[in-house]
Structure formats: structure tokens, C-alpha cells
Design brief:
7-stranded parallel β-sheet; 13 strands
Length: about 350
């Protein structure tokens, strides 16, 4: 008897598919039997790691920050016949990135992507776009507040501004075109094997005895594990409750700076930081030590995030926290640290 072909559930396009989050979502979509496409900036065969990450995925090579005719034509081909976009393409936060780069990749790129879908599909086609925004749209110092999705936005840097502007672009397209619905996640600082760079810096300072508590250490930090983000992104794409909704996404725990440093020190098996330093001196010392600016913004931030909406509407409660996943991060760090100090 002839073998029955696998029925495709969805045709999904993933931007930022070679990022750690994108790779996790791609894996989940393939496991679900979906046809998966990826919009990538470089040919997969030019980089073995990229090629490995895209196994089972059909790549379309286009730079979404460019608006020339050739790029748009490729985006149209990528969007032809799709019903979902997982939009994770982004520019990491650094002090060296020009504001136009954030704008072109996030804002202009998203507009081109949605235009490409509209141009390449029939009028009765439907699209759900799942977008990875950021808690940076709220700014960093929101002391005394519990931030809900209805709280005032107040981005303080080009990265946060570009994320908020992209949210507005997506909402505007959906408002005038009923074919498009969206789910926007305002994601806390992600961590996990793919997002360990900032924690690696933090662990190194603690291990070397150079870490200081900044201020009184009682400011609140928001975190979320990359696997929880990937899981809810795929769930939301199929959930009608998530249509045209914005969700805060963290692990639901209000960590303090002091608590994070204490937990990290215990996992590292080293002395817990107790000495304090004011923020001005900390910034100068961090710059001298080569600590990334985004890491300092994280340590100095003060945000308490409500995730009641995502719990209520999607029935989703994050499964992971730094208490359950921190050990794996530290073990990976210790391997590199030990090899460096032999």
C-alpha cells in the first residue's frame, strides 16, 4: 500500500530563525508537522552552523532592512501561501548600534513583510503574526508600579523605541486589513543556553570577587527562559483568544538585584557579594571592565511585571525560573572558566 503523506497543519515563516529563540520555534513547528520557511540574510551553505539550524526548513535569502525591488520580490515569494509569521528578527541592544539600524530592521522591515504578504496572497487568505517585542517599551525605572499591558509605555533608548514603533505598525496593518491578526509579546530579559552572554559576564565578576551590589540592591528584575517563550509563541499562533492581543511575558517572579546575585554566587560556590557601590561608580567601573551596556541597564532596572493576562486568556504559566535553570547556566560557564584558568 502507498504510504500516506503527512498532512501539513500550517505554513509558517520565521524571521530571526537562526537566533536561539527562532531555532527553538522552528524545531517545535517541524515537530508539529508544519511547513516551515525562514527568511535569512545569508545563504545557509555559507555557514555550517546556519545550515545545521535550518535542517528541514526552506530558506529565503533577503535582508528585511532593505527596501529594494529584488528584496521585496524575495519576501513576496517567502510569504506566498503562508498563514503564520513568527517575527523574531531583531538587532541586539548595544550602545554602538545606530538608531537607523534599529528602525530599518524592526519598523521598516515589519512594514515590508506585511506588505509582501498582502501582495502575494489571495484576498480571503488569513495571517497571524506573532511578534517578539520587549519590556524595554516600558522603560527601565518603573519603581512602585506593577506593569500591565495597559500601563503607559516610556521607551528610553533606540532599541525600546523601535520595538514600540513596530508594535504600532503591526496594529495599524491589522486595523485596516481583517486578513491580518497579531499576537505581541513584551518579553522580559531572556536567558538560557542561547542567551547566556550577559549572565556569563555577571558570573565572571562574581567568581573573580569583583561584583558589587549596586545601590541597595532592592530594585526588581524581570527574567524569562527562552524555552517558555518558544512554547507560548507556538501556542498563541493557534489560539483565538490571542488574536489582536498584547501580552507581558516573564517567569512571573519579582527578583531583586540582590537576590539574583546571591543565587548566582551560591550556584557558583563562591562568596556572596555584600559590598555596595552607587550607580554612577558602578557604571564607570563596568565600562572600564568591558561590561556590556545592556547588562548594566538590566542590573539597574526596576520593573515588576504582571503576567495575569497571559495566564487568564491563554492558560499559560511559565515552567522555568533561575532557581530551576540556573544550575545549567553555571555549569556551562564553569567549563569555559576552568579552561581559561588552567
Amino acid at each position: 500500500m502507498p504510504r500516506k503523506s503527512r498532512k501539513t497543519k500550517h505554513v509558517s515563516l520565521v524571521t530571526g530563525a537562526t537566533s536561539p529563540l527562532g531555532a527553538l520555534v522552528v524545531q517545535k513547528l517541524l515537530e508539529n508537522g508544519d511547513e516551515v520557511r525562514a527568511l535569512v540574510r545569508h545563504k545557509p551553505d555559507s555557514d555550517p552552523e546556519r545550515m545545521k539550524m535550518l535542517v528541514g526548513v526552506k530558506p529565503y535569502v533577503a535582508d528585511i532592512s532593505k527596501s529594494d525591488d529584488e528584496t521585496f520580490a524575495m519576501m513576496e515569494r517567502a510569504c506566498k501561501g503562508i498563514d503564520r509569521i513568527f517575527h523574531f528578527a531583531s538587532v541586539p541592544q548595544t550602545g554602538k548600534t545606530h538608531v537607523d539600524v534599529y528602525r530599518n530592521v524592526s519598523v521598516v522591515g515589519t512594514e515590508l513583510l506585511l506588505r509582501a504578504f498582502i501582495a502575494s496572497n489571495e484576498e480571503d487568505s488569513k495571517l497571524r503574526i506573532v511578534y517578539s517585542s520587549s519590556t524595554s517599551v516600558y522603560g527601565y525605572d518603573r519603581k512602585g508600579e506593577i506593569l500591565t499591558e495597559d500601563s503607559n509605555t516610556a521607551p528610553k533608548n533606540p532599541y525600546g523605541e523601535s520595538k514600540f514603533m513596530t508594535e504600532e505598525v503591526i496594529k495599524a496593518f491589522a486595523a485596516v486589513n481583517s486578513r491580518i491578526t497579531y499576537t505581541i509579546f513584551r518579553i522580559a530579559v531572556m536567558y538560557g543556553p542561547g542567551y547566556d552572554y550577559g549572565f556569563e559576564q555577571l558570573f565572571r565578576l562574581i567568581k573573580d570577587g569583583r561584583m558589587r551590589i549596586i545601590g541597595n540592591g532592592d530594585n526588581h528584575l524581570t527574567l524569562v527562559n527562552e524555552h517558555d517563550v518558544a512554547e507560548i509563541a507556538v501556542i498563541a499562533a493557534d489560539n483565538e483568544n490571542a488574536a489582536n492581543r498584547v501580552y507581558n511575558l516573564s517567569d512571573g517572579i519579582s527578583y531583586t538585584q540582590r537576590g539574583v546575585l546571591q543565587t548566582a554566587a551560591k550556584l557558583l560556590g563562591t562568596t556572596i557579594p555584600e559590598k555596595g557601590v552607587n550607580s554612577t561608580i558602578a557604571k564607570l567601573a563596568a565600562k572600564a571592565a568591558g561590561v556590556d551596556g545592556s547588562q548594566m541597564r538590566f542590573l539597574l532596572s526596576d520593573r515588576v511585571l504582571s503576567i495575569e493576562r497571559i495566564k487568564k486568556e491563554l492558560g499559560f504559566t511559565p515552567k522555568r525560573s533561575i532557581y530551576t535553570e540556573g544550575k545549567a547556566l553555571v555549569e556551562e560557564f564553569n567549563k569555559d572558566y576552568s579552561s581559561e584558568n588552567r
